[in-house]
TrEMBL record:
The lineage of its organism: Bacteria, Pseudomonadati, Pseudomonadota, Betaproteobacteria, Burkholderiales. Residues 351-402 form the DprA winged helix domain. It comes from the Bacteria. It comes from Paraburkholderia kirstenboschensis. InterPro entries: DprA, DprA_WH, DrpA_SLOG, WH-like_DNA-bd_sf. The gene is dprA. SUPFAM superfamilies: MCP/YpsA-like. This is DNA-processing protein DprA. Belongs to the DprA/Smf family.
Length: 420
């Protein structure tokens, strides 16, 4: 590898691990939990890494980079320096807090556009690529109403329902996020080049794939996992029985998110997937307001919604800034404890009151996110921020299925890489 400026050494370590063939995000999170930062992982021997994440993960992490790595690193650095582009890693305070509740969050995210949208309350709207005109109208109308209420509309930039959802989301204050299955420097399908440019200016485009990654069928189920992870609920507008939208719904359900579906004619092939989801427990909805009410997203004036969202996003970024600085000084378990101390000392005033209210609502049994929202009457952004503060302080633990529980006394303070 060529000689790197000090500012690029950390990025090179992140990139190396994110590109390591066979190193899955869940295994990398285990290693980050143990050692704090990528540079520390790369300094360990095979036996040490294998004891934590398994033989395959250790072998993948320590495999030397190929001759193309320097060019890949230069391309990433150049891409990041372009206006509107952001590269966010797991230890970055700007990392979407909703994705940290996943067991396998991507180590690196390539983002074009408004980074703050990834810290807002959001709903996914997905469906068939071969949508009917009625389905397209419904998707755009629902997305427009969500966006007008200050809710971010998340979808996958595919043709059909996804495209209609993005167009509707761009019309309100909530805007839209496109989670894509290619590198962030590519657009698929080609017909959505103009739409992608508009999203990059008014919303955000999100990818976990390395730059230059083309569209592959195997990438899209993993893309669907990001869509599910970013939101509080998923709405399926039209879907055939084997639609990829049903994968998104299944993944979202496993993460504890709410699932909604629009009903249709029993004779329509694109209604059968929706009807199947309704039979399996998805909520049948007929209006956008039903979704907003079910998720606790009160319809508000656009200006107040925008101001509240901006304030929550700023608090989320600023409150985590100290974490990054402390972790850089003290990696590993010591860093986790120090971060918890800094976090606890910062939780004063209204933040501390919110934390106490949330702890009281949590009780001592595992509790789903939606029940916490009902008990606390917090909006989605404040609830996610407060949960993250308490998890970093070691007060609570995130469980599979979008549930939370109080951390047991004497447990080491959790940090943002805790796989619990």
């Amino acid at each position: 590898m060529h000689t790197l400026p000090a500012t690029h050494i950390e990025l090179a370590a992140w990139l190396r691990l994110s590109l390591a063939t066979g190193l899955k995000p869940a295994a990398l999170r285990l290693l980050l939990t143990a050692f704090g930062l990528p540079e520390a992982i790369l300094q360990q021997d095979h036996e040490t890494l294998a004891a934590i994440a398994g033989e395959a993960a250790a072998r993948a992490a320590l495999t030397p980079t190929g001759p193309e790595f320097d060019a890949q690193l230069d391309a990433v650095i150049a891409w990041r320096e372009l206006p509107g582009n952001h590269l966010v890693t797991l230890d970055d305070p700007a990392y979407p807090p909703a994705l940290l509740t996943m067991p396998d969050p991507p180590p690196m995210l390539y983002i074009k556009g408004r980074l703050e949208l990834l810290h807002t309350r959001a709903v996914a709207l997905v469906g068939s690529r071969s949508a009917t005109p009625q389905g397209m109208d419904d998707a755009e109308r629902f997305a427009r109403t969500f966006s007008a209420a200050g809710v971010t509309v998340v979808s996958g930039l595919a043709q059909g329902i996804d495209g209609a959802a993005h167009r509707g989301g761009l019309e309100g204050v909530g805007s839209t996020v496109a989670a894509i299955g290619t590198g962030a420097d590519l657009v698929y399908p080609a017909a959505h080049h103009a739409l992608a440019r508009q999203i990059a200016m008014q919303g955000a485009i999100l990818s976990e794939w390395p730059l230059g990654t083309p569209a592959r069928a195997a990438n899209f189920p993993q893309r669907n996992r990001l869509i599910a992870g970013l939101v509080s609920g998923v709405l399926i507008v039209e879907a055939a029985m084997r639609s990829g939208s049903l994968i998104t719904a299944r993944l979202a359900n496993e993460m504890g998110r709410d699932i909604f579906a629009l009903p249709g004619s029993i004779h329509a092939p694109l209604s059968r997937g929706c009807h199947r989801m309704i039979k399996q427990g998805a909520k049948l909805v007929e209006t956008p307001d039903e979704v907003l009410e079910e998720l606790g997203f009160a319809k508000t004036a656009p200006v107040s919604a925008s101001a509240r969202r901006e304030k929550s996003a700023t608090q989320a970024v600023c409150s985590a800034a100290a974490d990054r600085a402390v972790m850089a000084r003290a990696p590993g378990e010591e860093s986790a404890q120090t971060v918890a101390q800094v976090r606890a000392s910062n939780m004063t005033g209204s933040s501390n009151r919110d934390a106490q209210r949330l702890l009281a609502a949590l009780g001592y049994a595992p509790t789903p996110l939606e029940i916490l929202a009902t008990r606390t009457e917090m909006d989605h952004a404040l609830l996610q921020t407060t949960l993250l503060q308490l998890e970093l302080a070691g007060e609570i633990s995130a469980l599979p299925g979008g549930r939370y529980t109080r951390a047991s006394h004497g447990r080491a303070a959790a940090n943002c890489f805790d796989p619990a």
